[in-house]
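Standup notes
- DV: blocked on the single-chain target, sequence here:
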Amino acid sequence: MKSFLPLNVRIDNRKILFVGGGKIALHKIKTVLQYTRNISIIAPEIQDELHEMGFNEIRKEYEKSDLEGFFLVYACTNNIEVNRRIKNDAAAYGIMVNVVDNRELSDFISPAVIKKDEMTIAVSSNGENVKKSVEWRNKIKAMLQHGDFFTKSSEPNKSGYVYIIGAGPGDPELLTIKAERVLREADVILYDDLVNSEIVDRFDAEKIYTGKRKDSHHFEQEAINEELVSQALQGKKVARLKGGDPFIFGRGGEEIEALRQHGIRYEIIPGITAAHGASAYTEIPLTMRKISSSVAFCTGHPVNNIQVPDADTLVYYMVASTVHEVLDAVAEKGRDENTMVAIVQNATRYNQKIITGTLGELRKSEKAVYSPALLILGENINQFIKDNWYSKKKKVLIAGEDSGLYVSEEYIKVLFSSKREECTDCHNHQQIEPLDLDFIDEIYFSSLAGIRNFSAFYKSIPKKITVKTANTEVGDEYKKLFLT
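- DV (later): unblocked, structure below
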């Protein structure tokens, strides 16, 4: 049996090589990155998240000569024979190798670490039980965060309870009854970028914004997991509010895994996923007798491995930056160029926009697509009605309290809450995106506070918009602010 001696090795100005460019390499690199950026990656393909880290990349198959000049090597391919060859080649150069998840081939083991300032805590099972090492590391980390690592207590740790909640695709009224109840009872709400601010504003709990969009992550997923654990270990009732449904491309599985590791109780409250919302609000049925009897949900990432399942209807999530790659992948799989495609931006929101055309037409199109966007492809789109029920309704912006003047059968109500304010502490609050007034048909100012708050954000109102006021006093204020 191999034994591994725990050591701290000096790596100043010493190069470290990772052979492999997938998830295995990414996981190891995140640990090494805490100590050095002198990292090189060799792999035929390197996933986007690794590429964005900006390391030295060599996109090729591994060769023995690639090892020259490196101090340590991580063999992170998913091919055991290649990893074995790296181990043997490195031995000839006198270079130590870590073969990921193979202690027998490894010269050293990477422990699960916690690093804060000059202090490092490393937990290792000598490669025997990696999962247990991670669990111990996470427990120690949680204790450090709450200042009780060096204290003794006879009382058991009283952890809170976490709800993983789907908020739906955008329309605030699509939040479920159970989700609303839990959010009213919650001590703290951790919410994503795609959660409508109208939903968040309803509740009094402490709010922590954890938004993530491509190339603009406020919180990395690992940090979100840590925040969930930290809040729960303080005994709080935690609501984790996610756009759509947490288990359909929502990374809910990763979050409950972190909760399991810390013994924190939780439950999942499903939400309406974007595909269902877009289908209903565009009148594009995902299934239809004699036309579509199968549906597949996919994502537009990674661009070098877009999946094209054999299904009548395909739905691709997160396509704002990859729409052409998705269309090309579908065409290469043999779909007819005349197959109908619909791209739905901001599904179920007041500014929902639908772009339709054939597969061939949209592959040639240069129209910009903005996030959040979803793509539906299939013959069922022939049932699409341009003048659908949602587009027929007028969009009215209500600045102030909703007086009930506008009936839901005729209007989509967009609430401009008096709670809107500039983001002064962006650790805890979402940057409020400006309303797209091009989609608004009418504005109703129900109070002086409402119109003054609105004027703090908008200095003019497009002429096409009809403006109504609740009374003469508000009307006079409107004239003073916008007509003089």
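- Follow-up: The chain has a mean pLDDT of 89.
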